[in-house]
Amino acid sequence: MGPFGSGKSVGCCAEIIRRCSEQAKGPDGFRRSRWAVVRNSYRELEDTTVKTWHDWFPPEMGRWRESKMVQEINVGDVRAEILFRSLDKADDIKKLLSLELTGAWVNEARELWAFSIIKALRGRLGRYPSMRDGVGPSWYGLIMDTNPPDEDHWWYRTFEEDRPKGWQIFRQPGGRSAEAENLANLVPDYYEAMCQGADDAWISVYVDANYGFVQDGRPMYPEYQDSIHSSPPALEYRPELPLYLGLDFGLTPAAVFAQQQEDGQWQCIDELVTDDMGAERFAGEITLRIKQSYPQAAQSNKRLIVTGDPSGSNRAQTDEKKIFEVLEAAGLRANPAWTNDPLVRHDALAGPMKRLTMAGRPGILVSPKCKMFRKGLAGGYKMRRLQVVGSERYADSPEKNIYSHVCEAGEYLMMGAGEGDRVVGGGIHRPSGRHRPRAIGGLRARR
Question: What is the largest CA-CA distance in the chain?
């Protein structure tokens, strides 16, 4: 882990070739290895990772199979396959299930948002060459490189807090440090020039190599101003008011808890953000949080309004149950949002940010208990900046990362509260053409 320009990626490329060269010979006299090189998206893989690899190990060292993104290394007695793969969402774990690998390199690990992908990848290592062929891998394992992520990232938890047995982290000094690395391969004053025009948070992470939160890309919610929409003291739960929940699913499910005050202000009072958790465990965590922290809402059919990602109506991948059925079995009745249209979802959450209440207060406040939700709204949930020449351009859809799920949970919450409705021609317009049922304590409200 280190700053920009410190040679992290090149070092990992060299490590792969070193391990391939040190592999024991098989019965046929060749040193056989198979590696996966992983990046968060295909575009980043093609534009940066593959180009870096080919700068040092060109296709002429064997054969480059463009359609399959595989390079075959045939040099001396080394016979290695290097498979380049994008793993930018949980469903991409399927890409790993049939691979038999010696090792893997995760490039820019901070961009991988699900630790479940790392665990699935580790399960494929040490399986090539097979022991039945006379010799197994002389070494197998996972290597990763990254710029410092936020302290909420799985990288920080893994290496700075938990540190599993056998895991090591190598931290490079910052670019302005007297011990800075790789300066001989950089233009003079590289880091000094990089600091010009950059804010302190960006410099701390990308130049000085410290953990931290950096807003880059285009925020999905530019309407959110942390100085206006956050609440320094924790917001208190009021049992006489309904409790609203928004749920987002997948392998990193999240929930946001909120209440609407008498003057119309929304107060986001709590969140539940998980990593690598299936539907049944998530349902159990949600119901436990409600019973322990919001018992009045758990006891009253009129005090709990729960809305979730409508894709949860589809079959879950693990147990072939619909997620809403899993929630109901755990004692939590929830309804799917009436549409998954990204624009409607966005407007539902952005609406309260744009207005004041009748009492002149901000339309929404976020409690410090909602740490991930707050960072997501402040720019963690974003449109990725594209690597193009000329004017700034951004991806067409939000980047999936550690903040996207909790922000989407907030969107579903507001849709369940009616914030996603559009007034068109004097009436309520819903793209689906159907009235949306609202869940109140698990019961559908009559219209």
Answer: 81
